[in-house]
Write a structure and sequence with these properties.
Order of helices and strands: HEHEHHEEEHEHEHEEEEEEEHEEE
CATH topology of the largest domain: Rossmann fold
Strand content: 15-25%
GO molecular function: methyltransferase activity; nucleic acid binding
Number of domains: 2
Protein name: Adenine-specific methylase
Shape: elongated
Structural class: alpha+beta
Strand order of the largest sheet: 5-4-3-2-6-7-11-8
Keywords: Methyltransferase, Transferase
InterPro entries: DNA_methylase_N6_adenine_CS (IPR002052), EcoRI-like_methylase (IPR025247)
Largest sheet: 8 strands, mixed
């Protein structure tokens, strides 16, 4: 019941676009320490947070000299009030520019931060914000979850480097997966414990985890997405298991074996392998090749076949779990089994 209530609230966030999940400074610091070399002499743009209360703006302004930044720019949807949840109903939006410490105290004082008015509402898709985007080298922020597809598409269109927060389910989006497959986007180091705590007043936190925090909502499966090179991306996953047909059954409608846990990928199998989307956190393009994703529509592009005629009678039951033709499925002890979404990969470094 708790899970259903939580899922309902998160779904409402997508529907109502009340997805203002404000990121903690500690999470920002924990992730961005791995990217410091990328920021020297760069213009950083934070375009989805109120710059006066944004922890992204706080991090970059207080570390401006340490990172060697050239300029910091921040915009947000119209919001003139200091209240973090001001409902964005002010008449005019602003943007802030910071070019570094001027009085020698190594603190970004208000008089050192240029506050400028925007003609429009500050939406990241507006002409004004796109002009600011064009001037930026790297974009760092937590964009609205409901607009993640559109947000990433804009970054790709304007050929921008970025480090942004999103949910791991975005890996399966038809607009996002091809970017991952083609090595134009990958996962960063991630949130502690695979979950993020965000400031958000719209939803009650139903999480039962021991690390829940008062006044914040705990969201599992959030991650950092980037196209900046990081060491993690080139670390080999250590494999130790060997392939056997009994332990690794093949899918009924696609020539690939199923692996339920990333660490159990067989080291000696040279065919196609279906792995959970959590594999992406360990993905190394030097070690593995991504072929496709085994879900409806996207899966059909790889040649995943629909249910076999003799298995049609099982469809109603598995459809209750959201499975449709085009999803991968197996027969286990005479019963149709539909695993969660699978990324289809091939091991480049097979060990015999």
């Amino acid at each position: 019941m708790i899970d259903k209530a939580k899922n309902k609230n998160l779904q409402e966030a997508k529907t109502n676009k009340k997805d203002e999940f404000y990121t903690q400074l500690s999470d920002i610091e924990r992730e961005l320490k791995y990217y410091k070399k990328h920021f020297k002499d760069k213009v950083v743009y934070c375009n989805c947070d109120d710059p006066r209360v944004s922890n992204f703006f706080h991090y970059f302004s207080y570390n401006f000299e340490k990172l060697g930044l050239k300029k910091l720019v921040a915009t947000c949807y119209k919001n003139q009030n200091m209240d973090l949840f001001s409902q964005n109903d002010a008449e005019q939006a602003i943007y802030l520019e910071y070019t570094g410490d001027k009085n020698g105290n190594n603190i970004p004082d208000p008089e050192e931060i240029g506050i400028k008015k925007l003609k429009g509402d500050g939406d990241f898709r507006s002409k004004e914000c796109i002009e600011l985007l064009k001037q930026a080298d790297i974009v760092v922020t937590n964009p609205p979850f409901s607009l993640f597809r559109e947000y990433v598409s804009q970054l790709i269109e304007y050929d921008k480097k970025f480090v942004i927060v999103g949910h791991q389910n975005a890996i399966k989006y038809k607009e996002i997966f091809p970017l991952i497959r083609d090595n134009k986007l990958w996962l960063g180091y991630g949130f502690k414990g695979g979950a993020g705590h965000f400031i958000n007043e719209h939803y009650e936190d139903y999480a039962t985890a021991t690390d829940r925090k008062e006044g914040m909502i705990r969201v599992s499966g959030v991650h950092w997405f980037t196209n900046l090179e990081i060491n993690k991306r080139h670390e080999d996953l250590i494999l130790y298991k060997k392939y056997t047909p009994e332990e690794y059954p093949k899918f009924e409608n696609f020539d690939a074996i199923n692996v339920d846990v990333t660490k159990d990928i067989p080291m000696d199998y040279d065919g196609l392998i279906g792995v959970p989307i959590t594999f992406m956190d360990k993905y190394n393009p030097d070690q593995f090749e991504i072929i496709g994703v085994g879900i409806a529509n996207l899966g059909l592009e790889m040649g995943i076949e629909p249910y076999k005629p003799e298995h049609k009678k099982y469809r109603k039951e598995v459809q209750k779990r959201g499975a449709v033709d085009g999803d991968l499925y197996m027969m286990v002890d005479g019963v149709v089994t539909v695993p969660y979404s699978r990324i289809i990969i091939r091991n480049k470094k097979v060990q015999k």
